[in-house]
Amino acid sequence: MQPLFSLWATRLQNSLDSQHRRILLSVAVALSVLGGGAFAVANLDDGASRLPLQQVVESVNTTSLPSLWTDNNSLQLFRSDLTRSSDTADSLLSRLGLSDPEATAYLRNARTARQQFIGRAGRMVSVEGDADHRLTRLTARWANDDGEQFTRWVMERTATGFVERQETANLTVSSRMGNGMIQSSLFAATDEANIPDSVASQLADIFAGDIDFHRALRKGDRFAVVYESLEADGETLRTGRVLSAEFVNNGKTHQAFWFKEAGAKEGGYFNADGLSLRRAYLTSPLAFSRMTSGFKMRFHPILQTWRAHLGVDYAAPTGTPVRSVGQGIVDVAGAQGGFGNVVMVKHANGHTTVYAHLSRLNVTRGQSVIQGQTLGLVGSTGWATGPHLHFEFRVNGQHKDPLTMARQSVAVEVSTAAREQFKRYAAIAKIDLTAAASTQVSRAE
Fold it and tell me: Which residues of the chain fall below pLDDT 70?
């Protein structure tokens, strides 16, 4: 056994010596290449010392190579963020990665900045800074009231200090797609799908005549939507109109397409058959809100008795706008017993709507109002235990369920002259909706 062990040990030693020489030679070659010049390896071991050595010297022209070193002052840093209601000039610049007392002082005293975006949430602000975190340029953008243009305010460092200028330019309109599935509520689903709240509110308004978003949503309901994105300098400032939408509620599919006839003053939403989704009455006098008491018997919280609740109550914060559900004439606008501040609007065919407990009245008796016009603000006047809106619908003095009346109201069709145009438009819009809905399938997989 001893000779065999000795033979094995000898072979192992030779193998290790061979591996050792290979590693050392590899390191030497790598170092010679990385060094870019002459590099000599000696005294590695007896074998390496006997290897022939050769020195190679080459000249390199560096004039055509880009400089690897730059002046720190030429380094520019870029960052963008949305303003917050709690922002000051100091906190805004600090959040954007800048430390510049001179810029902070100028921004703090700039009148336009104070009026338009300092302490005002949702404004897009972009900054450029140097390597020392000093401000080079600040740009703020916001959409104008006309909906077609935006304002660009620029604050820039010059050799003599900061200067500012204000410009106006056209918004760029593009379309975006989104989709989602109801798990608990519409807004939770749109949040999950990264769809803006304004789009969710539009969805609720568009399908309000067919879907009771307060009581009829089901887990597993799904939707797809194509909507406008209004952009300035490549940044989205706000969302625009919903262009097309699909909502599957309790297994039934509802579709809506925005369409404006040639020569018409206003457009509207229509289903695939060209029937308008806008009825004579809105289903709700508030933008999508949580319903607290429906049209039924209830225990009155103040009178402490069971009695018929001849309307619908909507929980909403004080100051929430209350809109007229239809076109009509204001019959009552003032204080009236348990209703507190109340507005009553007379419509056609003996219909009257009632809006009670308002904190403020925006209309007067005898005034004409259109559908969606603000009548007042939510409050808690009269017999109210907290801020909410009490809403009633009466037909010739008889109380009716407002939701039923809204669903039964007459809808308008696309005119005969525009029907072919609508069909072509709807066919294209359906393709976009299919694409929007298909992304949901991909995400689910």
Answer: 1-55, 59-75, 146, 214-215, 288-309, 410-411, 440-445
> What is the spatial distance between Cα 402 and Cα 290, in angstroms, rounded to a whole number?
15
Q: How far apart are CA 98 and CA 93, in angstroms?
A: 5
8 A C-beta contact, residue 349 and residue 393: no
Measured in degrees and rounded to the nearest 5, phi and psi for residue 95 equal: -65, -25
- Which residue from 167, 146, 142 is spatially nearest to 231, judged by alpha carbons? 142
Secondary element (H or E) of residue 202: helix 197-206
Q: In terms of Cα–Cα distance, which of 290, 342, 271, 313 is closest to 402?
A: 313
Residue with tokens 């969302």: 239
Does the CA dihedral 67-69-74-77 come out positive or negative? positive
Q: What is the dihedral sign for C-alpha 132, 133, 135, 141? A: positive
292-347 per-position pLDDT tens digit: 433 333 334 444 443 445 778 888 889 999 999 999 999 999 999 999 999 999 99
With a CB cutoff of 8 Å and minimum separation 6, the contacts of 380 are 318, 340, 357, 359, 386, 387, 388
Euclidean distance between CA atoms 332 and 34, whole angstroms: 90
Q: Are 96 and 123 within 8 A, CB to CB?
A: no
